Amino acid sequence: MNITVITVGKLKERYLKEAIDEYSKRLSRYCKLDIIELSDEKTPDNASEKEEIQIKEKEGQLILSKVRENAYVVAMDLNGKHITSEEFSGFIQNCGVMGNSNITFIIGGSLGLSQYVIKRANYKLCFSKMTFPHQLFRVMLLEQVYRAFRIMKNEPYHK
């Protein structure tokens, strides 16, 4: 299985880079992982709604330019579905069974995802109604993907 994470924003903190490296190493036993980091658009203070939409659309075009045609796209979206870790594991397994072995997770920038990205998504997933920094969320996503594979293989880790 091929897992791609397309994320807006660069990782700056060393401890987050180390966590990403650790989960990337752990996941290498289960899948091919590719992380694509895209630059975020600078949002001016007190940006108007129109300016925010333009920024999301610009980021969205860049995101979509990196999505492979045969990818099963999962948009990380506040309006997405809430599922348990076990259901997430089943979701990833189901994707593989249904012939969707190229799963692309998309993490937007601070303003979220453009409607073009949402429309391209095959599935919309929400981890929480809370807001997280996208750099930290990248670690959380990789941890849950790792947990999903461990559950799938009935290996100890998930409790």
UniProtKB/TrEMBL annotation:
* Gene Ontology molecular-function annotations: rRNA (pseudouridine-N3-)-methyltransferase activity
Give the subcellular location: Cytoplasm
Q: Where does S-adenosyl-L-methionine bind?
A: G108, F127, S128, K129, M130, T131, F132
Q: What is its EC number?
A: 2.1.1.177
What family is reported? Belongs to the RNA methyltransferase RlmH family.
Q: Kindly give the InterPro entries that the UniProt entry links to this protein.
A: Alpha/beta_knot_MTases, RlmH-like, tRNA_m1G_MTases_N
Q: Which organism is it from?
A: Clostridium gasigenes
- Please explain the role this protein plays, according to its UniProt record: Specifically methylates the pseudouridine at position 1915 (m3Psi1915) in 23S rRNA.
| Name assigned to this protein | Ribosomal RNA large subunit methyltransferase H
- Translocase as a keyword of this entry, yes or no, is no
Entry keyword annotation includes Transmembrane? no
**What Gene Ontology cellular component terms go with this record?**
cytoplasm
Subunit structure of this entry? Homodimer.
Catalytic function, reaction form: pseudouridine(1915) in 23S rRNA + S-adenosyl-L-methionine = N(3)-methylpseudouridine(1915) in 23S rRNA + S-adenosyl-L-homocysteine + H(+)
Gene3D superfamilies, per database record: 3.40.1280.10
The membrane spanning regions, by residue number, are none
Where mainly located? cytoplasm
Query: Which keywords does the record carry?
Result: Cytoplasm, Methyltransferase, rRNA processing, S-adenosyl-L-methionine, Transferase
